Amino acid sequence: xxxxxxxxxxxxxxxxxxxxxxxxxxxxxxxxxxxxxxxxxxxxxxxxxxxxxxxxxxxxxxxxxxxxxxxxxxxxxxxxxxxxxxxxxxxxxxxxxxxxxxxxxxxxxxxxxxxxxxxxxxxxxxxxxxxxxxxxxxxxxxxxxxxxxxxxxxxxxxxxxxxxxxxxxxxxxxxxxxxxxxxxxxxxxxxxxxxxxxxxxxxxxxxxxxxxxxxxxxxxxxxxxxxxxxxxxxxxxxxxxxxxxxxxxxxxxxxxxxxxxxxxxxxxxxxxxxxxxxxxxxxxxxxxxxxxxxxxxxxxxxxxxxxxxxxxxxxxxxxxxxxxxxxxxxxxxxxxxxxxxxxxxxxxxxxxxxxxxxxxxxxxxxxxxxxxxxxxxxxxxxxxxxxxxxxxxxxxxxxxxxxxxxxxxxxxxxxxxxxxxxxxxxxxxxxxxxxxxxxxxxxxxxxxxxxxxxxxxxxxxxxxxxxxxxxxxxxxxxxxxxxxxxxxxxxxxxxxxxxxxxxxxxxxxxxxxxxxxx
Length: 518
Description:
Elements: H1 3-19, H2 21-40, H3 57-64, E1 70-74, H4 83-94, E2 100-104, H5 111-121, E3 125-126, E4 134-135, E5 137-143, E6 146-151, H6 160-163, H7 169-195, E7 200-205, H8 220-228, E8 232-237, E9 250-254, H9 262-273, E10 278-281, E11 286-287, E12 290-291, H10 297-300, E13 305-307, E14 311-313, E15 328-331, E16 333-334, E17 350-353, E18 358-360, E19 369-373, E20 379-381, H11 385-390, E21 400-401, E22 405-411, E23 426-430, H12 438-446, H13 451-462, H14 467-470, H15 485-517
Parallel strand pairs: 1-2, 7-8, 7-9, 9-10, 10-23
Antiparallel strand pairs: 1-5, 3-4, 5-6, 11-12, 13-18, 14-20, 15-17, 16-19, 19-22, 20-21, 22-23
């Protein structure tokens, strides 16, 4: 046999080996390596436009902040329409933290383990349409010997799209809302079971303030958001009282329309000097069409903040909204205070309605920091109420020049430290109360306004909840178009002048080309 023939046979054998067992072995090795990498570097991707399968930024931060092992137990049967969505939600949290595990207990397939779990944690049993045994709780968060329940009825809307065949738009909307509700419930439970305590934000009443419950002018939605963040709100009557309850982690005074008396203001001062924290929202205050004190000026001066007798007017057309007066505008110049740090550089804006200018008090012993200010084109109108209402607004030397601070934060210089708290004598003052209302919350849902997020971050700073400060607001998908007056004017020029002119020029060019061919 020739040497050439032998070499060709060896090469053929090697080729066969490479194309057979060796390739299969290499494929198995690569497959194994990919699985190992996938297990060690687990990632989830959400390609939906609305990010339906992605937790909010705040929930992601809550999951990453978990310090001790926590188990999320889903107590639904696989035959129940809510099981898939509930389990998917729990898995999203598990993907973000190695401290979180997820377990499902099917009452039909794992009856003994299911019953033992109910007995161990004293959970109530019942029935469901799919099983003769069920738990009143749909999801249970477990940390050591502590547990928190999310009720089965809170999960009821999950799975609506499946029952509707996936083509019902209203069912799809219900399931999306249900996912948000359950996500908030899980995040709130994680925070509560981790911290153990639940801060209390007391809300003042008795001076015609923004109410906790009620219509668009109430702060009901804001209170609900705080509840999801494991912060409870409680009304506190301050009219005629000599002291603020000492168990208030912070006191909120939102948009009083009746002035505080000297004695009532002194009770708030004593609370602040004793280490209490204050969130004060002060709208422009008028009595008989003239600017008047709110009675809280002596309180805000403790932190070096002086509410002026003015109404802020915005002259920058890009900050105004079509058809609305210049006292309603947007503000996006966030200051140096830590409350505002995560709002800078993300194109966030606050919707402002009827604000007063804030300044540093003369001779202040403590220096407040800016949270939010207006543009350089704005000013603080010091004229009477009639001038503001009639729109006869003209800047004059007595007015306050912009840019203007409309939110400041500081500390009470002589505040005593509170036992077990590092946050003592903190104060946040806004020159308007609109951002706490249901109407502002709804406007934020329709457009990229961060009123509620900024107010939540302020509460977080006051009650030492840094997770509410550290998480930047997630831009909302705009369901309504809100444009400035300047943009509307530009659109009109395009529609009425530029587009017809362009069409005319194109027509003339075509006509000229045809004539040259002829």
